[in-house]
Design goal:
Radius of gyration: 19 Å
Structural class: alpha/beta
Strand content: 15-25%
Number of strands: 8
CATH class: Alpha Beta
Shape: globular
Distance between the termini: 69 Å
Number of domains: 1
CATH architecture: 3-Layer(aba) Sandwich
Length: 280
């Protein structure tokens, strides 16, 4: 277990987590809910947007204050570009039970990752696997990519952060409130240095919560040989998709296609060749 136990102090936890409860809603067409029991009395509710069993699957760790059903429209956009989106979640968020802590987040993330791989296999999914984390979700995404690089094809980070203490200060925690040191925090910089799989980092140029310099640190420290960095002009922490529009999803799909050796051009050419020639 990571040495971030010091983050599990009440005054720090109140800054890190903003759990938002929400009942189960009816999933949109093509989506389904799957509940995973992590331990007796603790169930994490996830929502999966399934395009096709052979399509690439993205295991997605959402941001703070968000719940799985917030991604109903976004999930459909991923399906439109030919990807499955599997929204993982945390204790106390949405219809998930329990109370979030840092230690539980790491433990659950690692267990849930294995459970999700088994679920995909049992449901006939054969496509390549990617991990994506947004904001707080970057913590688990980087952790999993560092541990299980042999099981996933690539890592995508949106609005992620390198150092923890500056973020805690932005969130209102006084530097003198605790005796915690950076090396006792999430360790994103240390872990992303261990990540060797292809990595795409997306960030808003106008992000005031997590400045773009944090994304630049992650990019610099990443151990991946194939690493891409996209700064979206005019976007802040919560307007990446609305600012970039279709380009956001196309960039992610292009990243996936480059890694897997597939492209829309190749697919169109293959399809055209397979069509019968009706000309006399």
């Amino acid at each position: 277990m990571h040495n971030s136990l010091k983050l599990d102090q009440p005054e720090i936890l109140s800054r890190i987590f903003y759990p938002r409860h929400g009942p189960k809603t009816v999933p949109p067409a093509g989506a389904c809910d799957v509940d995973f029991e992590m331990e007796p009395g603790i169930v994490l509710g996830c929502r999966f947007y399934m395009h096709d069993s052979a399509a690439p699957s993205i295991l997605y760790l959402h941001g703070n204050g968000e719940i799985a059903s917030d991604y109903d429209e976004v999930g459909l956009e991923y399906m439109d570009v030919g990807c499955n989106l599997l929204v993982m979640t945390y204790r106390g968020y949405g219809w998930s039970t329990g109370t979030p802590t840092v230690q539980a987040m790491f433990k659950d993330g690692r267990q849930l990752f294995i459970k999700l791989i088994a679920w995909l296999r049992d449901n006939g999914s054969s496509g390549p696997l990617f991990i994506m984390g947004r904001s707080l979700g970057s913590v688990c995404a980087i952790d999993l990519a560092a541990m299980h690089g042999d099981l996933v094809k690539g890592l995508i980070i949106e609005s992620g952060f390198a150092d923890t203490l500056p973020l805690l200060q932005v969130l209102g925690l006084s530097p003198t409130a605790t005796d915690i040191r950076e090396e006792e925090c999430f360790g994103n910089r240390e872990k992303i240095a261990q990540v060797k799989i292809p990595t795409l980092i997306l960030h808003g140029a106008c992000d005031q919560l997590i400045p773009a310099s944090e994304a630049e640190k992650l990019q610099a420290d990443s151990g991946a040989r194939n690493k891409q960095f996209l700064l979206i002009p005019g976007a802040d922490h919560n307007t990446m998709i609305s600012t970039a529009g279709k380009l956001y999803f196309q960039t992610i799909r292009q990243f996936i296609d480059t890694i897997t050796g597939r492209s829309s051009w190749r697919n169109r050419r293959k399809q055209k060749k397979s069509e019968p020639n009706d000309k006399p």
